[in-house]
């Protein structure tokens, strides 16, 4: 069976993605979940809802995700309106996955894109991001992160890194 997404014909098999960033191996993962939403404890896996995309999510994070969509950071806004909104594949903003809210998610590429602010560079933030990455990668997702200043000051490089994650079209 051949699936189509917009004007692209997609093969029925999965094409491995190339390495995401030229600047070396990235510190993958990011975007804060929202501790304390719906109580002090993180919900168990049994509290999650599985969607058609086969990615479970915590329903208590849906309202927070809507809020975050309305209040994007300057870097998130630039990446969304300047590039990802018209990306060749559908990209969702502030998507709940498991017990987290990821900044951007492309289901077709199984790609999570995170834009990191200062809170991610503390020792606690790094530990949290590392754990988060492991959970998201456990769902078969590729997690890539960019710092706010990279998005704002190295725009072309960020867009090129994301574009390189699109697999080549198969020959016809």
From TrEMBL:
Coiled coil: none annotated. It comes from the Bacteria. Gene3D superfamilies: VSR Endonuclease (3.40.960.10). This is DUF559 domain-containing protein. Residues 61-166 form the DUF559 domain. It holds the Pfam family DUF559. Signal peptide: none annotated.
């Amino acid at each position: 069976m051949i699936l189509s997404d917009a004007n692209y014909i997609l093969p029925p098999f999965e094409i491995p993605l190339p390495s995401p960033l030229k600047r070396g191996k990235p510190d993958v993962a990011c975007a804060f979940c929202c501790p304390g939403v719906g109580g002090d404890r993180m919900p168990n896996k049994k509290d999650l809802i599985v969607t058609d995309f086969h990615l479970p999510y915590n329903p208590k994070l849906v309202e927070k995700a809507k809020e975050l969509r309305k209040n994007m950071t300057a870097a998130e806004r630039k990446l969304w309106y300047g590039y990802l909104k018209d990306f060749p594949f559908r990209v969702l903003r502030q998507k709940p996955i498991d017990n987290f809210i990821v900044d951007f998610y492309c289901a077709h590429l199984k790609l999570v894109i995170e834009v990191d602010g200062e809170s991610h560079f503390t020792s606690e933030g790094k530990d949290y991001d590392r754990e988060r990455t492991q959970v998201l990668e456990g769902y078969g997702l590729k997690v890539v992160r960019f710092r706010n200043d990279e998005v704002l000051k190295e725009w072309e490089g960020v867009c090129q890194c994301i574009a390189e994650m699109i697999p080549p079209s198969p020959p016809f």
